[in-house]
Amino acid sequence: MASHLRVRENCDLVIALTHMRLAEDMEVAEATKTGKSRVDLLLGGHDHEVVRRFNGDTDTDPANVEQGHDNIDITVEGLIRDAQGDIRIIKSGTDWTGLSLVRMIIGKDEKGSTNISTVVSQWSNIDTENPLVSTITPGINQLLDSIHNRVDDLVQEPVLHSYTLLDGRGSVVRSQETNLGNMLATAVQAFYNTDIALFNSGSIRCNQLLGPSIPGGSPLLIKDIINICPFENSLLVKRIKGSVIIHSMENSIGDMHMDGRFLQVAGLRMVATWQRKPEHRVLEIFLDRPGAAPQKLDPSRVYTVALPKFIGDGFDGYTSFPAEETIVDEETAITDTGLMLQIFGQKAEERCDDHELGIQRAQAVTIVGTASDGLPIVNPVVDGRIRFIECPAL
Length: 394
What we know:
It is a single chain. By secondary structure, the chain is of the alpha+beta class. The protein has helices spanning 2-7, 22-31, 71-74, 131-136, 140-155, 170-173, 179-192, 222-228, 242-252, 309-312, 336-343, 353-366; strands spanning 15-17, 41-44, 50-54, 75-76, 79-85, 87-92, 99-108, 114-123, 158-162, 166-167, 196-200, 209-210, 220-221, 234-241, 263-266, 268-272, 282-287, 295-296, 302-308, 325-328, 334-335, 367-370, 376-378, 386-388. Strands 11, 14, 15, 19, 20 and 21 form a six-stranded mixed beta sheet that branches. Strand 22 and strand 23 form a beta hairpin. The longest helix has 16 residues, at 140-155. The radius of gyration is 24 Å and the shape is globular. The model has no long low-confidence stretch (mean pLDDT 91).
């Protein structure tokens, strides 16, 4: 793409906006540092840290702002010491707490080649009263405040209670079975009445424990549901061969960086180990039907599977899914956010009969009672559908 932009579109500069882990950004930076395919700067996401890396750096730990320096030595009251040179990668934190001010100085060397020096000022904690920050973003704070006020009015409506803490912490849902993950996957499976449901943990974004609200706590609000599933992922249904499902579960636990590929599941039970190499970690996998003994998943059989479009399209390493037959596509699918809101009584403007029946099925497996204020109650549990055991390495 960089080569196309330079050669075909006559661009002088190419800046990449990425959403990858730092190690992957550094691979890209190394592969695109010279010639027509040069990327002059990568502005990265995914890592929730303030980061900068120069050409030739090798430190892939995003907790370190700059290679070779302790963060405390280059930071004063949230302001990180300015840097200048062949800076290749800049990341700016998360949740509006970080900020990077970038200036690129462009010149020509003796041979007429473009020479670029990047200057960056970065904050790990933004002080909006800082004169420099206020000059960078005139009016932005006021605009954000007005938007937040309008949205807050809409999302403060209480929608449900929980008997237990709902575990949506990113470090947990991306590495093991959780009760919130089980609730989501089970609801999706019931909505579509499929054999199996897969729910990639990267779709669960609240990164916190929610509840409990019974006894004596405040109910969860619409904004809590949106924070759990903020992306409006379409939930597809595919017919998928057992061998592909087994491979997908290997991919789910193929990376110990705790990224979003880890799958929360319904309709399956799996025994696995972290002690073996990727592609050899799934020890047993069973089809789990209510009221029936678990049966080993048949690699040659085709199963109906509900799953978010993101992994259905092959992202996060699920490259086998796109070729599998789709029986509910994006046009007729419900979204994860919409499903959760409708389970707890937020009516869609238009809802077809099939969706109505699906909502009733999802409510039946999600809601366990009604509180005195009339709101539904949930009580999801961890039931051992994903178990990790110690096992000798191969």
